C-alpha cells in the first residue's frame, strides 16, 4: 500500500477499534496503489469494443437476461441491483474507471440488474471476443486473474464491514477505509442514501449516526465530503 495513504487510515482504524488488513478495501473503493482494473485490456480488445450512453435510471441489462458482454464505466456511476424478498438490494456501485459484470464471462445470464445512477458512458466488451483473447494469450488471462484476486480482497472487506453490528462502528470503519490523500476526508460520489445502501444501513439509521458523530465533533460534513476530526469514544 502506498505510504502516502497508509498512516492516517491505519491510525484511525486503531482509534476506532478495528484491525484493517492491508490491501482490503470496501467494494467500490479502490486502494490507491492498486494496479488499474483496466491495465490488462489489450489494444485489440479496446478497438473491438463500443460505447453506449445511458440516462439516469436507464437499465444496461436486467437480471436473467442473456450474458453477452462485460463492461467498463467510462463516465458516471452504475448500480448492481439484486431483488431479495421483492425488494431491490444494491450489491455494488461501479464507478468511473471500473470494470463490471465480469462473472458474465462464465455465466449464461446476468445475475443482477445494472442501472445507471447518473448519466453514464459505458464501454462494451463482447464476451465472445474476450474469451477468445484469453485462449490466445495466457499472459492476458493471468493479468485478468490478478484483477479478480484484488476483487476477492474487496469482497472480504465488505463482509467484514457487514459483520460489524454497531451502526456507529460500521460507519467509522467505512470512513477510515475510504479516506482520501489526507487520511481523513471521504468524498461522496453519490447520495447519503447510496452510502447507506452500500454499508447495509437504512438511511434513517445513517442520518441519525452522522448527526450524533457531528454533534460530538468526531466528524464534520459538507455537501460532498465527510471529514474525520477526532478520536471517537465508542
Features:
alpha+beta, Arc Repressor Mutant, subunit A, Jelly Rolls, 2 domains, four-stranded antiparallel β-sheet, 7 helices, 35% helix
What's the short story on this structure?
The protein is 35% helix and 24% strand. With 234 residues, the chain is α+β, with helices and mostly antiparallel strands. It folds into two domains: 6-34 and 154-228, Winged helix-like DNA-binding domain superfamily/Winged helix DNA-binding domain (Arc Repressor Mutant, subunit A, Orthogonal Bundle), CATH 1.10.10; 43-136, Jelly Rolls, CATH 2.60.120.
Textual characterization of the structure:
The protein is of the alpha+beta class. The chain has 7 helices and 11 strands. The chain has a 4-stranded antiparallel β-sheet with strand order 1-8-3-6. A 4-stranded antiparallel β-sheet has the order 2-7-4-5, with no helix packed on it. A 3-stranded antiparallel β-sheet has the order 9-11-10. The two termini are 28 Å apart.
What would you call the structural class? alpha+beta
Number of helical elements: 7
Global mean pLDDT: 81
Taking pLDDT < 50 over at least 5 consecutive residues as the criterion, the unreliable ranges are: 1-10, 12-35
* Oligomeric state of shown chains: single chain
Strand order of the largest sheet: 1-8-3-6
Query: Which topology of the largest domain does CATH recognise?
Result: Arc Repressor Mutant, subunit A
Largest sheet data: 4 strands, antiparallel
CATH superfamily of the largest domain, called what?
A: Winged helix-like DNA-binding domain superfamily/Winged helix DNA-binding domain
Return the CATH class of the largest domain: Mainly Alpha
Rg calc:
19 Å
> What's the helix-strand series?
HHEEEEEEEEHHHEHHEE
Number of strands: 11
Give helix % range: 25-40%
**Count of the domains:** 2
Between the first and last Cα atoms, what is the distance in angstroms? 28 Å
From the coordinates shown, what is the CATH architecture of the largest domain? Orthogonal Bundle
Question: Shape from CA axes?
Answer: elongated
Q: How much of the polypeptide forms β-strand, as a percent range?
A: 15-25%
Amino acid at each position: 500500500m502506498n505510504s502516502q495513504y497508509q498512516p492516517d487510515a491505519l491510525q484511525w482504524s486503531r482509534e476506532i477499534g478495528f484491525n484493517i488488513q492491508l490491501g482490503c478495501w470496501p467494494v467500490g473503493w479502490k486502494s490507491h496503489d492498486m494496479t488499474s482494473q483496466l491495465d490488462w485490456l489489450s489494444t485489440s480488445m479496446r478497438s473491438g469494443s463500443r460505447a453506449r450512453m445511458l440516462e439516469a435510471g436507464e437499465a444496461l441489462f436486467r437480471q436473467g437476461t442473456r450474458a453477452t458482454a462485460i463492461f467498463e464505466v467510462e463516465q458516471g456511476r452504475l448500480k448492481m441491483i439484486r431483488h431479495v424478498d421483492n425488494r431491490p438490494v444494491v450489491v455494488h456501485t461501479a464507478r468511473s474507471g471500473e470494470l463490471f459484470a465480469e462473472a458474465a464471462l462464465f455465466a449464461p445470464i446476468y445475475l443482477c440488474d445494472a442501472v445507471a445512477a447518473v448519466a453514464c458512458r459505458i464501454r462494451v466488451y463482447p464476451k465472445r471476443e474476450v474469451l477468445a483473447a484469453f485462449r490466445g494469450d495466457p499472459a492476458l488471462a493471468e493479468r485478468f486473474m490478478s484483477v479478480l484476486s484484488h476483487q476477492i480482497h474487496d469482497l472480504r472487506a465488505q463482509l467484514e464491514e457487514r459483520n460489524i453490528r454497531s451502526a456507529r462502528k460500521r460507519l467509522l470503519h467505512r470512513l477510515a477505509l475510504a479516506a482520501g490523500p489526507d487520511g481523513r476526508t471521504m468524498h461522496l460520489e453519490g447520495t447519503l442514501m447510496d452510502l447507506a445502501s452500500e454499508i447495509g444501513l437504512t438511511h434513517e439509521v445513517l442520518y441519525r449516526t452522522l448527526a450524533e458523530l457531528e454533534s460530538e465533533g468526531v466528524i464534520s460534513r459538507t455537501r460532498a465530503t465527510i471529514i474525520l476530526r477526532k478520536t471517537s469514544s465508542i
